[in-house]
Amino acid sequence: MDGIPPIALDAMGGDNAPGEIVAGAVLAVREHGVPIVLVGSPRVVSEALAEHDAAGEIPIVRSEETLTMEEGALASLRRPRSSIAVACHLVRRGDASAVVSAGSTAGVVATGKLRLRAQQGVLRPAIAVPLPTRPHPTVLLDAGATADVKPEILVQFAHLGVAYAETALTVADPRVGLLTIGGEAEKGNKLAKRAHELLAAAPGLNFTGNVEGHDLLNGVVDVIVTDGFTGNVALKTMEGAVRYAFSELRETLEGGRAARLGAMLQRNRLRDLRKRLDPEAYGGAVLLGLNGTVVIAHGSSTAKGIAAACVLASTLSRQCTVTHVGERIATTHKPHRLW
Fold first, then answer.
1. Under which EC number(s) is this enzyme classified (predicted)?
2. Residue 337 has what pLDDT?
3. I need a labelling partner for 208 at 20 to 30 A (CA). Which of 11, 25, 200, 286 fits?
4. What is the average pLDDT value for the chain, to the nearest integer?
5. Which fold has domain 1-122+289-319?
């Protein structure tokens, strides 16, 4: 991990801040060797570090304000000295290599756009989420950064997702699919139909056609493109379904002696399945298209999830993902005519 600036971790963002955030920072430093700088109230963060006998082990950068989980995009303007704003400023200044936050998604996206700015040619940033498919994760984007988009923006989302899949997941020539209500080209609303036409004609994209909701975990493509509204609904529906399935499975396996015996015999496979479907194991979502690496951890992240997010942010920084995204957009973006 030598040679790269530390990860700026928003210590005040998230449902479990600052306790689990600081615990995750300690875990990332001690077990994964990821350099961290915590951004937040020095008194509060110092007290949390002391609980792990880590006082003085991780640097702290002061912030004067905190974005609550209930605050939306406008909070980025109302709170210019928030912990997430200061973290972004550290990246922009070169004192940090990436930002990690479990705070309000709307607040993180708005602050990132304001402080780090979009890369040259990027029309809208997109949140990319890895779905637990085999043999490697499938990238879903946009998962909530931009609710209303034009078809041309979905094409650019595809390029963002391809750049991420190539760099972070080492997928060669990623297959791209458009999320809609049917496999046929003419299925979907006006946005989906026009986007299908543009994606099919776009140079540099291995577009394989439409995918449906039941394809999200099938691994039929490497990148799934949609608008932020649809992507966020699809993602949360899938997460809820997985939680429900595990809850039902737990009840079934605890329902009798034979079931408990069967669970014991299959405990390794069940443990592997749970780990593969655990959102915290993937480190969080990545906000693509900005002049800096931004990882958004789940709002309810525990220390394990925060540590995984820091490892992901460090990996993306070392892989120069932002640079790769910028290079791909530069070769595909056509400036809009002014007349």
1. 2.3.1.274
2. 42
3. 286
4. 88
5. Isopropylmalate Dehydrogenase (3.40.718)
